[in-house]
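Weekly sync, protein design subgroup
Attendees: M.S., D.O., the rotation student, P.L. (late)

Item 1: inverse folding check
M.S. brought a backbone from last month's batch and wanted to see whether the design step gives back something sensible before we order anything. D.O. pointed out we never logged the input encoding, so this time it goes straight into the notes. Structure tokens as presented (327 positions):
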């Protein structure tokens, strides 16, 4: 499965022969998605609106774009400015028997998904997950006193009315070969960005708002009070583990700290088992925060995660709050 994922990502970066073979299917996908959008736009499918504003943060490509740290940053900033935000998410790869589900910092990532648990831990705000986004919002508002909802992912989930749309773009990989699925990485044509309210480019600069992810420290999985600077790991070989949409972003960050790495890339949302860490005895392991929420049950003393923080321009926050106040 990992090799298939890697092969697809290579195809998606260039307009290869394989990409052109898949292109007719991409056109069918694009037509189908356009028809679906029209059905929502012209009232053939219902769109549910709520009495509080809804902010959707998503992307138009498959794979990691750094969206989750940006959601955390937005939620913290809203709270800092006097709002009471709540979060909804799909709960991707969660195996709950019923939906929607309330997520707490102690929830099982296997039940509700890894990103929602990360969001609950980092923000300490109410989080509800479920594939039916309007149902998740109803439960959130019924069970918590929130005056704004932030939807983690969901640009393509059109049954939920959104007051503000924010699209996150990977500044390094951009839109790959520019084709829609399955010939390319696009969930929607790149022209979709013309209709959103804000575009945030992660690790890139252009006319959109730029974002920088920072993470100078590592936190111990067994004892979260143990925090060490990444530079302290320079004198040893480190096993770097990443099961995210773009593992190379994590590895690149660690390499920028001049660490001696053995890199282990897994598929996005990989369900980690202890056997995935059969390295030499006493190995130091660094992983992403999203992966760490799935590894606490079998954590060992030299397993660490690297939390990252999204740094966004103050101008973005000012414009976001101004938009909210007019909704």
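Designed sequence read out in the meeting:
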């Amino acid at each position: 499965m990992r090799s298939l994922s890697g092969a697809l990502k290579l195809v998606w970066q260039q307009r290869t022969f394989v990409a052109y073979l898949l292109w007719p299917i991409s056109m069918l996908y694009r037509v189908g998605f356009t028809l679906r959008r029209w059905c929502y736009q012209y009232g053939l499918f219902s769109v549910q609106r709520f009495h509080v504003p809804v902010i959707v943060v998503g992307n138009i490509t498959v794979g990691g774009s750094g969206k989750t740290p940006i959601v955390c940053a937005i939620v913290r900033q809203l709270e800092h400015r006097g709002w009471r935000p709540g979060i909804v998410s799909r709960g991707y790869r969660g195996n709950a028997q019923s939906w929607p589900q309330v997520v707490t910092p102690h929830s099982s990532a296997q039940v509700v998904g890894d990103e929602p648990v990360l969001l609950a831990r980092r923000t300490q705000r109410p989080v509800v997950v479920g594939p039916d986004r309007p149902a998740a919002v109803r439960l959130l508002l019924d069970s918590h006193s929130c005056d704004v909802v932030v939807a983690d992912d969901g640009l393509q989930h059109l049954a939920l009315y959104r007051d503000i749309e924010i699209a996150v773009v990977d500044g390094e990989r951009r839109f790959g070969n520019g084709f829609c699925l399955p010939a390319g990485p696009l969930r929607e044509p790149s022209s979709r960005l013309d209709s959103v309210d804000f575009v945030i480019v992660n690790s890139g600069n252009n006319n959109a708002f730029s974002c920088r992810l920072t993470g100078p420290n590592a936190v111990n999985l067994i004892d979260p009070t143990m925090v060490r600077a990444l530079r302290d790991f320079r004198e040893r070989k480190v096993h770097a583990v990443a099961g995210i949409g773009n593992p190379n972003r994590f590895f690149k960050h660690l390499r920028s700290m001049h660490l001696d790495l053995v890199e282990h890339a897994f598929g996005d949302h990989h369900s980690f088992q202890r056997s995935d860490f059969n390295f030499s005895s006493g190995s130091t392991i660094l992983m992403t925060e999203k992966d760490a929420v799935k590894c606490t049950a079998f954590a060992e003393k030299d397993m660490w995660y690297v939390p990252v923080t999204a740094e966004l321009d103050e101008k973005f926050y000012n414009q976001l709050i101004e938009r909210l106040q007019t909704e």
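Discussion: The CA atoms of residues 89 and 280 lie 37 Å apart. DSSP finds nine helices and 15 strands in the chain.
Action: P.L. to compare against the previous round before Friday.
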